[in-house]
Write a structure and sequence with these properties.
By secondary structure, the chain is α+β, with helices and mostly antiparallel strands. It has two domains: 1-29; 50-121, no CATH class. The protein contains three helices and three strands. It has helices spanning 2-27, 39-49, 96-120; strands at 51-59, 62-72, 78-90. The protein is elongated and about 70 Å long. The model has no long low-confidence stretch (mean pLDDT 85).
Length: 121
Amino acid sequence: MVVLLAELLVLLLLAGLLLYGLGVWSARPPVPPGVRQPARRQRRSGAVLARWVPAHDEADGRTRVLLRRAYLGPDGLPVVLEDRVYTAFASDDPAWEARFTEAMSAARFRCSYLNAEESAG
């Protein structure tokens, strides 16, 4: 019984250390302060790292499904380089959910194709 309690205590201690280490590791800044790249190099590397992702928005009563070329900026927020309208339909369409689901699925497929095409050269 004492051995079981000792093993349980050691296990809890190891789990606590693991969680503490994970918290410290995930809270660190992605780029140490003072190691920022010049703006021109950031833009150039961002354009190289840009990926096509599906997106959507609603404007003037129309839902638009977009193909968006973007990358993560130095502050962690996405920087949009290009938006292409894949399809658009009325927001009050009775079949909105089905059309939206189908359009987003097709946009995901198209984005994967564009990303593969760009990575091939």
